[in-house]
Specification:
Rossmann fold; 11 strands; alpha/beta; P-loop_NTPase; 33% helix; DgcN-like_N; DgcN-like_C; 16% strand; EBNA-1 nuclear protein
Length: 334
């Protein structure tokens, strides 16, 4: 799916900044896509954009209202529906990554049909994907993988794409989750694709390209996560990655949501990912490790990364503290 740009970011009645993290992510990584924000009176979040009414946003060129807030249960309240109907009537499409579908709300469906607008439930695929064929294809691909879920794969991927583009490299971020899709305007939410077609979906969004072009593919889950290893495997095979970047959060005591499962050792995790990736690209290698050190102070973070770098023999960085330049430097071998 491709969302029309630019966006009006809907913060609704977000209870705090964390509840509006999707909108903040769009504003951080794609500020050029944003014309402003819409907040209800009770909203406690602020992305630092100009507050606009629906009419003001349309006059500023907004083409899609993006729901950038996630509340408990993904509920679209009656108050939200009134604003969304107004946006459709004014000429905007609507996009959301909530569990609750826009297309399950009769008032929105009726209004969208009446005014020729589109409702994008980006978590759910809008097209059929083929079974993967595993055939080699031109271009280069980098995939972020993780020791666990929610360790910074999307952030690392976006940071790598930005660093590449800042250097004049030909690169595109390929979103595989709903937040990434809303940030960039396209992609596939891999966790909602039927298992047989995950690898084919990733082949579809990362097709053959110029030899110098890099697709930077957002990873999902972990091979060591009992709940989501299947999604990760499909991503690895479909991406046909030339390069992997491992993402890790060092203070975790167990896999996210699975207290009976310990985090894997770094070297074991890297070898498992390489072994899986060699099925579709025998020459795959790691270019570095991205560590989320937000739970560590500066000295502890630097010490940990230095020790890990000595152990793995690859650049180890925190993309927030230090950037990802050293990982991009290490891509020259590919």
């Amino acid at each position: 799916m491709e969302l029309k740009k630019p966006y009006l970011l809907f913060l609704g009645d977000a209870a705090d900044a964390l509840a509006a993290k999707v909108a903040q992510g769009i504003k951080t990584w794609r500020p050029e896509y944003c014309v402003g924000q819409f907040r209800l009176d009770s909203c406690k979040a602020d992305c630092g954009l100009t507050d606009m009414s629906i009419t003001e946003a349309v006059n500023a060129g907004a083409k899609t209202l993006v729901i950038g807030v996630a509340n408990r249960g993904g509920i679209i309240s009656d108050e939200w529906v009134g604003v969304l109907v107004e946006a459709l009537e004014a000429g905007m499409d609507i996009a959301a990554g909530l569990h609750n579908k826009l297309n399950d709300i009769p008032a929105l469906v009726e209004c969208a049909q009446k005014h020729g607008r589109s409702l994008f439930d980006v978590r759910y695929p809008s097209q059929a994907y083929p079974v993967a064929n595993g055939k080699p294809r031109s271009g280069k691909r980098l995939l972020t993988v993780g020791t666990d879920c929610s360790v910074g794969k999307m952030y690392t991927s976006l940071a790598i794409e930005k660093e590449m583009k800042d250097r004049g490299m030909d690169a595109d971020f390929r979103a595989t989750g709903q937040t990434g899709i809303l940030i960039t305007g396209g992609g596939v939410s891999a966790d909602c694709v039927v298992a047989d077609f995950i690898a084919g979906a990733i082949e579809t969004i990362t097709p053959a390209n110029d030899e110098a072009h890099w697709d930077v593919i957002e990873g999902q889950g972990s091979l060591f996560h009992a709940s989501f290893a299947g999604v990760t495997t499909g991503l690895i095979h479909g991406s046909q990655a030339d390069v992997l970047v491992l993402c890790h959060e060092p203070t975790r005591e167990h896999m996210r949501g699975l207290p009976e499962y310990k985090l894997p050792e770094i070297d074991a995790c890297m070898e498992a990912n390489l072994a899986t990736a060699r099925l579709t690209n025998p020459d795959v290698r790691f270019a570095g490790v991205s560590v989320n050190t937000s739970a560590l102070d500066e000295d502890a973070a630097l010490t940990y990364m230095s020790q890990l770098e000595e152990k793995v023999g690859l650049p180890v960085v925190d993309p927030f503290r230090q950037g990802v330049g050293r990982i991009v430097d290490n891509l020259s071998e590919s």
